[in-house]
Write a structure and sequence with these properties.
Elements lengths: L1 E8 L5 E10 L2 E10 L3 H6 L2 H18 L19 E8 L2 E10 L4 E3 L2 E12 L10 E9 L5 E10 L2 E10 L4 E7 L6 E8 L7 H9 L11 E8 L2 E17 L2 E10 L13 E6 L6 E7 L4 E10 L5
Length: 313
């Protein structure tokens, strides 16, 4: 017996049908399992527009939550290394919407004649979420090995038919940034724009790795950390609240964690002033193991699935 399962959409817009075509002795039969989607949150979550906002927001969550960007703070012992790979699953209730990955290249990469960590964040829809449009995003940075400051950041966005290819070159010494925007095929330069920076800044990806290099042991519950970074042609200044510690069950086992909550700008996606919590392991690796975001309806979860190539085992 051969089973071929395929997700299809019925003529009723509020229903998803799983059709199993079962071939046995050249006779075809079908069984249908109907899952009603009569509630607005499910229709909203599975829309392409929502998924586009989610992936941008997930990167912003890492940026806003995991980045103490005071330029004068010294960098401590770097807890990550070449070849590190963190994999996550994005879910809404019982729906698995996407996979996400944070990956450090296996070897140093040269930028401005200096060695850099090349770090990529990948996000890709899967399962039922792809019915309403595919999202396949790549955000990255070249992080100076010595200063843990970015020299170059980039975004390659594929969301349905939408495409965006953007590069930002940072001159940290002279407090300048140059943004270059390319066409849909990432071949021809469309726009170049220069920006003045208030000081040394991080981009959205480098910010997370910068924080991991900080000593978090002396933080006190309720302590406020001020954040500064550059993203999408703007400088962001925001508050980060340290909420204490918690023992958390994860796919990597039971972990002692730090808990952080960022104060996000007002938007139509999240609920409340501090709608997001992030759990970071209280060990030498300081990796994120869970992010929970309270939406206007329900909550979005990003949970770690695997961690490879960790510097500290």
């Amino acid at each position: 017996m051969k089973v071929n399962k395929q997700w299809t959409i019925s003529k009723t817009p509020t229903t998803i049908v799983l059709e199993s075509q079962i071939r046995n002795f050249n006779r075809l039969s079908a069984r249908f399992f109907v899952i009603p989607l009569e509630y607005r949150p499910f229709r909203q979550v599975l829309s392409l527009k929502f998924m586009k906002r989610i992936f941008g927001s997930l990167i912003l969550l890492l940026f806003f939550t995991l980045s103490d960007l005071s330029a004068q703070d010294p960098v401590g012992n770097v807890p990550f290394t070449f070849g590190e790979e963190l994999s996550f699953q994005v879910s809404y209730g019982w729906l698995n919407l996407a996979d996400a990955k944070l990956q450090v290249a296996k070897r140093p990469q040269d930028q401005n004649d200096k060695p850099h960590y090349k770090i990529d964040v990948y996000g890709k829809t899967k399962g039922a979420a792809t019915i309403f449009g595919k999202v396949n995003d790549n955000w990255g940075t070249y992080l100076d090995v010595e200063t843990i400051l970015p020299s170059l950041s980039y975004r390659h966005i594929e969301e349905g038919k939408y495409r965006k290819h953007e590069f930002v070159h940072f001159d940290q010494k002279n407090k300048k940034a140059t943004m270059k925007l390319f066409d849909k095929e990432n071949r021809n330069l469309k726009e170049t724009k220069d920006f003045d920076l208030p000081g040394q800044v991080q981009d959205m990806v480098s910010a997370f790795y910068y924080l991991r290099s900080k000593d978090l042991r002396d933080l006190k519950q309720g302590e406020v950390i001020l954040i500064r970074g550059f993203f999408d042609k703007e400088i962001y200044n925001i508050k980060l609240i340290y909420e204490g510690t918690e023992t958390l069950e994860t796919n990597l086992g039971k972990k002692e964690t730090y808990i952080f909550s960022p104060q996000l700008p007002k938007n139509k996606l999240f609920r409340g002033e501090f709608p997001v919590k992030v759990w970071v392991t209280k060990d030498k690796n300081k990796i994120p193991v869970k992010i929970k975001a309270n939406l206007f309806i329900g909550s979005l979860n990003l949970d770690i699935i695997s961690a490879k190539g960790l510097k500290n085992n």
